[in-house]
Design a protein that fits this description.
The complex is a heterodimer of chains A (about 425) and B (about 120). With about 425 residues, chain A is α/β, with parallel strands linked by helices. Helices cover about 20% and strands about 35% of the residues of chain A. Chain A has helices at about 15-25, 60-75, 140-150, 165-175, 195-200, 260-265, 305-320, 400-405, and strands at about 5-10, 30-35, 50, 60, 80, 85-90, 95-100, 105, 110-115, 120, 135-140, 155-160, 180-185, 210, 210-220, 225-230, 245, 250, 255-260, 270, 275, 290, 335, 340-345, 350, 355-365, 370-375, 380-390, 395-400, 415-420. The longest helix of chain A has 20 residues, at about 305-320. The longest helix of chain B is centred in the first third of the chain and has 12 residues, at about 35-45. The chains are: A alpha/beta (about 425), B alpha+beta (about 120).
Chain lengths: ~425, ~120
């Protein structure tokens, strides 16, 4: 097997954008490994519109957005292998993979970009009581069945969780003739975008019940009925609030988990909050030369930001190889989060290794109104911006000028926090 | 005088808007924090439109289905008619992004176009 300088694991939006950016940065020897039978990843099943407003200044569907990047990869002649499953990534960056043409093979690249995306939280991880009949799907599985394979998973539907895929599928199933009876959400707020609540639920008169969860599933062979109930502030079902819906299908849209089995096998440090690798400002993991971007790093709401982040990872990987693959010994400032900021990407910043600007992305743990996002270098406030509203469902981005950090050489760390506006 | 409530979708703020209408015409919009809220309320209550996306079957393609959309937004009230009109279409591979699948859907003057490349099999 021919060796490559850079191997990108995953041919979805992150992998494609990383490949294009690495190529444009001068690195020509790239291979993309994709386990599905086409490039594009999850975008291929996201047939709704709303993608690309930031990147292309127009509103595209998922397959069209993916198509733009696939076209670039093909134009640049970047090689890729489809139907190829990566089985292992070792700490020395040895990639073990297999497919029907090449059999089992190993690659020894100079750098690796992790772009495996995420997967949905399945029923087994949700502790829902009741029987285990057919008819229970994650929203994304239903989306693939309807949009790519042409099957309808059911006719009478209840949805648990108000993540964006669940909301999108409420509309999609309705348009295909199903009756979506209710969307139940455990939290007192929706995890989905406002736009999706209005255009996928309100437009079709589908009720959204906040602070509700599924307490029973009936049916031995196939789902026959679902019972939901209201929950108290500790998420315990309140007796007497049960409502029973006769239905044949339950869709689950209860969160996404970065898919990091390979990262773990390589020994990459994982952030327990994001379930993704810890990275520095160059999106480099705890193993020098292994970079991560997109939903494998932390779950994004907008693909535009995935492309942007992956582009940066691609450029940093190209720089790493061009500089002779040396682990550089720069002072790293840890990034701490406080006051409702749940996590940040990156978790450490090396001002001397950063370019002109540093992108900090983070999420908050609750809905906050009239706050200020503030960033401190040591004790000095170097950034502050008013935010009328912050919600867990909306990722926040702060772009810092690197000079703001180099102006404070005494600082031993960076803090991202929320303050009263 | 008629009163309607809706939620603005322009940003995560999600302002609860209260709109008063007289003879189908928007008189006042309150509850919005910025001018985009007023524009949204007016459009939503006088001429709401949506882009509709769906899928159609493909014969002889590497994939079984091709995704499609209305080339521009169509009146909200025509969404179900539009989906019905798409339902029985079966395309021959190859299919190319942008290819017109059905012209002037339901008299809206808007075409249904493919949003996916599906190469022919073999």
């Amino acid at each position: 097997m021919r060796e490559y300088d850079l191997v990108i694991i995953g041919g979805g939006p992150a992998g494609l954008a990383a490949a294009v950016a690495a190529h444009e940065a001068g690195l020509k020897d790239i291979l993309i490994l994709e386990r599905d039978n086409e490039l594009g990843g999850i975008l291929n099943q996201c047939i709704h519109n709303g993608f690309g407003l930031h990147t292309f200044k127009e509103e595209l569907t998922g397959p069209e957005y993916a198509g733009r990047f696939i076209e670039q990869v093909k134009k640049l002649d970047i090689p890729y292998k489809l139907n190829t499953m990566v089985l292992d990534l070792a700490a020395d960056k040895t990639v073990t993979a297999m497919n029907r043409e090449d059999g089992l093979f190993q690659l020894h690249p100079k750098a690796v970009i992790l772009a495996m995306g995420c997967r949905e939280r399945p029923r087994g991880a949700l502790n829902i009581p009741g029987y285990r009949p057919a008819g229970i799907f994650t929203a994304g599985t239903a989306q693939r069945l309807v949009n790519m394979e042409g099957y309808m998973p059911g006719r009478r539907v209840v949805i648990l969780g108000s993540g964006d895929i669940g909301l999108i599928m409420a509309r999609r199933m309705t348009l295909e003739g199903a009756k979506v009876q209710v969307v139940a959400e455990l939290m007192p707020y929706s995890g989905g975008l406002k736009r999706n609540i209005v255009q996928c639920l309100d437009d079709y008169g589908i009720p959204l019940k906040l602070s509700h969860t599924v307490v029973d599933i009936e049916g031995k062979k196939r789902v026959e009925a679902i019972t939901i109930a209201q929950v108290d502030e500790k998420n315990r079902p309140i007796p007497g609030t049960e409502e029973r819906y006769e239905c044949d299908t339950l869709l689950l849209s209860c969160g996404l988990i970065p898919e990091n089995e390979l990262s773990r096998s390589a020994g990459v440090d994982i952030n327990p909050i994001t379930n993704g690798p810890t990275v520095n400002e160059s999106l480099e993991t705890s193993i020098p030369g292994v970079f991560a971007a997109g939903n494998v790093l932390h779950v994004h709401d907008l693909v535009d930001y995935v492309s942007e982040e992956a582009g940066a990872a691609g450029r940093h990987a190209a720089d790493y190889i061009a500089a002779g693959c040396k682990a550089e010994d720069h002072k790293a400032l840890p990034v701490k989060c406080e006051n409702g900021v749940r996590y940040t990407v990156p978790v450490a910043i090396r001002p001397d290794a950063a370019g002109e600007n540093i992108t900090l992305r983070f999420r908050v743990g609750n809905v906050y109104k009239n706050k200020k996002v503030a960033v401190y270098a040591g004790d000095a406030c170097i950034f502050s911006r008013k935010r009328p509203v912050l919600a867990p469902g909306e990722m926040e981005t702060v772009i810092l000028k690197t000079s703001l950090l180099t102006d404070h050489p005494e600082a031993e760390g960076i803090t991202v926090t929320l303050e009263e506006a | 005088m008629e009163e309607k409530n809706l939620i603005c979708i322009n940003c995560p703020l999600g302002c609860p808007l209260t709109v008063t209408l007289e003879g189908g015409e928007v008189k006042t919009v309150t509850g919005n924090t910025c001018p985009r809220g007023e524009a949204y309320a007016k459009k939503e209550l006088t001429n709401p439109t949506r882009i509709v996306t769906s899928t159609v079957k493909v014969k002889g393609g590497k994939l079984a289905m091709a995704s499609v959309k209305t080339a521009t937004d169509i009146p909200k009230g025509k969404i179900f008619d539009c989906v019905k009109a798409i339902q029985d279409i079966e395309l021959e591979a190859p299919v190319a992004i942008g290819q017109v699948v059905l012209a002037d859907v339901c008299g809206t003057g808007v075409d249904i176009v493919a949003t996916k490349n599906v190469p022919a099999r073999g």
